[in-house]
From TrEMBL:
Gene3D superfamilies: ABC transporter involved in vitamin B12 uptake, BtuC. It is found in: Membrane. Pfam families: ABC-3. The lineage of its organism: Archaea, Methanobacteriati, Methanobacteriota, Stenosarchaea group, Halobacteria. Keywords: Membrane, Transmembrane, Transmembrane helix. This is Metal ABC transporter permease. Belongs to the ABC-3 integral membrane protein family. Its main location: membrane. InterPro entries: ABC_BtuC-like, ABC_TroCD. One of its GO terms (biological process) is transmembrane transport. The chain crosses the membrane at residues 65-86, 98-117, 124-142, 154-183, 195-212, 239-270, 282-303, 309-330. GO terms for cellular component: ATP-binding cassette (ABC) transporter complex.
Length: 354
């Protein structure tokens, strides 16, 4: 345990070093940042075109924050079910809660560095780093202690939330400003910088799943057989939890840490009611998540309500409808007579074909 956690602690100290954080921001501010910023500018043009066609107030060109919120929401609608489908089938639905609480600690670290050391780092960047380290810690605790995953998740969840509250209490004047937006989500908090970070996370998550889909699928449904066939199961487990950490931090911008885990589970649970295959469930969950995000953002804008809460309520409503539709489909399948063929009693030669 000590041998494994020692390097992790050193890595944590190194990554959280202010200079390293600044270096990370500068690295992201290079060609990659410029390319993603161009994507964001292109999205603004698309929204302007849609506004010219529809005249919808919430996509008025003066409301650039809404354009960014919709873009982030659409990305979350793909990322969350994409990872959530694997998590639900592996009975790891609660890992989103654990990582969301550690992401809250990451936000507190960023605000602490900005408030005390005046570094000017993005709290979302520190949230990404802390959440990914916490994801690795969950896997390490399970591997080293042979404890169940829910035990390691409970330990990391408690530690993350405790660290966040301690950092906030250390300097309440500087850290309390805007902390509610990270707890409950806010459409207006999606800055251009945060949108670019989310686009980078989106590219990494979708690209990784596309490249490793078969291996992740094998590990998800039969971990023992996957290990026997030579697949490095532990390595893929770590990849999965780190991808989950990225999704959690990305969704935190508009969902808030308290509700972010819902987007990993609810659309997948709804899709499982009406789908009969893994791929069908994955695609259906993406469609349902996009529907929940778009409807939720629209309702929260016109109703002046918290975006995260509205999106989750819409997702739950969709889940209820999916359950009803699933029941109807199951009843139809039971009532449909199964064709078993017919026996021609007039035929005398059993080898005679029609």
């Amino acid at each position: 345990m000590t041998e494994l956690l020692g390097p992790l602690v050193a890595l944590l100290a190194g990554v959280l070093d202010p200079l390293v954080l600044q270096g990370g921001l500068e690295a992201l501010g290079g060609p990659v940042y410029d390319a993603l910023a161009l994507v964001l500018e292109g999205w603004y043009r698309v929204m302007d075109f849609v506004y010219a066609l529809t005249g919808l107030e919430m996509i008025d060109p003066d409301f650039r924050f809404m354009h960014r919120a919709i873009l982030v929401g659409l990305c979350i609608g793909v990322m969350a079910p994409l990872i959530g489908t694997f998590l639900v089938h592996r009975q790891l639905a609660l890992i989103g809660d654990a990582l969301a609480h550690t992401a809250f600690a990451g936000v507190a670290v960023g605000l602490f560095l900005n408030g005390v050391l005046e570094l000017g780092v993005s709290p979302y960047l520190t949230a990404v780093i802390v959440a990914m380290l916490a994801a690795l810690l969950i896997e390490l605790i399970s591997e080293v202690t042979d404890a169940y995953n829910d035990v390691s998740m409970a330990i990391v969840l408690s530690t993350g939330f405790a660290l966040g509250t301690v950092l906030i209490s250390l300097n309440a004047g500087g850290l309390s400003v805007g902390i509610n937006q990270y707890l409950f989500g806010n459409l207006s908090t999606v800055s251009a910088e945060n949108a670019v970070i989310l686009l980078a996370l989106f590219a990494v998550i979708v690209g990784t799943v596309a490249l490793t889909r078969n291996q992740l699928l094998y590990v998800t449904f039969d971990e023992v057989a996957a290990e026997v066939s030579g697949i490095p199961v532990r390595w893929y487990n770590r990849v999965m939890v780190m991808l989950t950490a990225m999704v959690v931090v990305g969704a935190m911008q508009i969902m808030g840490v308290i509700l972010v885990a819902a987007m990993l589970v609810v659309p997948v649970a709804a899709a499982s009611q009406v789908s009969r295959s893994f791929t069908g469930s994955l695609l259906t969950s993406v469609v349902l998540a996009e529907l929940a995000v778009l409807l939720g953002i629209g309702v929260s804008f016109y109703g002046e309500a918290t975006a995260g809460g509205v999106i989750v309520l819409v997702a739950v409503a969709i889940y209820v409808v999916a359950v009803l539709v699933g029941k109807l489909l199951a009843r139809r399948d039971r009532e449909t007579p199964v064709s078993v063929g017919a026996i021609d009693t007039d035929r005398t030669d059993p080898t005679e074909a029609d």
